[in-house]
Amino acid sequence: MEQRANIKFCVKLGKTFTEIFALMKEVYGDDCLSRTRVFEWYKRFQDGRDALEDDSKPGRPKTKNRDELVEKVREMIAYDANSTVRWMAEELNTTKDMIHEILTKDLNKRKVCARFVPHALNEDQEIARVEHCKDLIKTARRNCTFLESIVTVIAHPPYSPDLAPADLFLFPRLKLRMKGERYENVMDIQRNVTRELKAISKEDFQNSFQWLYERAQRCIDIQWDYVEHCNR
Q: Of 61, 70, 67, which is closest to residue 41 (Cα–Cα)?
């Protein structure tokens, strides 16, 4: 009940699900409710629920039919596009094959750079990807030092983690270096992330933008489609 009350309090403060779950993990550690349980209570309180008690049947709400399961998967992806098939299957007490089928057939999703995105982009989104790549290449050709510069803001087409420097270079590198480690709290995570970021050399950053240039050209060559095999 205590954790539910804290979730309710955070919802009333207007905090997002991601912020609430991070706070819960920091306070309760291994005793924290699972991500799915926190999300379920977050949604209930956000929808106006006031009671902290379980519904008539205790425990995790059972998925009665496929439609309900599809909606739960849709909600998970909406709040965290990096959710894994294995994690969703475990949390929803179903098989990985079922989750994969729902993602690809019911929700029409595909995974690009460890992130679920729409399988089929609309025409405007396809055009935006190609135009984004053309602009990037045009700028780089006009200014030979562009890729060596400190770029603070780069326009980003929708649903395109395969063209985002952070998804291509930064996040995979951090994940590789920090995977398997246990952190005491959010501050500990921040310290370790900062340390790893400072360890990245200037040459590595410059190479990542050269890689982005090459991927942009590839996107144009294949007429907007996703450029697979992001990790390099």
A: 61
pLDDT tens for 172-229 read 788 888 877 777 777 788 888 888 888 888 888 777 777 777 777 777 777 656 655 4
116 forms bridges with which residues in the sheet?
A: 111
Q: Report pLDDT digits (tens) over 121-150.
A: 666 766 777 777 777 777 767 766 655 554
The CA distance from 139 to 146, in Å, is 7
- Distances 156 to 74, 87, 159, 219, 223 between C-alpha atoms, Å: 24, 28, 9, 14, 17
pTM of the model: 0.33
Task: List the structure tokens of 113.
Answer: 């750079």
For residue 219, give every residue at least 6 positions away whose Cβ sits within 8 Å of its Cβ, in sequence order, or none. 129, 130, 133, 162, 163, 225, 227
Distance (Å, rounded) from C-alpha 2 to C-alpha 52? Answer: 9
111's enclosing H/E stretch is strand 109-112
Tokens of 102: 């729902």
d(CA 87, CA 231): 21
CA angle centred on 191, ends 189 and 195, rounded to 5°: 115
Identify which of 159, 79, 176, 84 has the alpha carbon closest to the alpha carbon of residue 119: 159
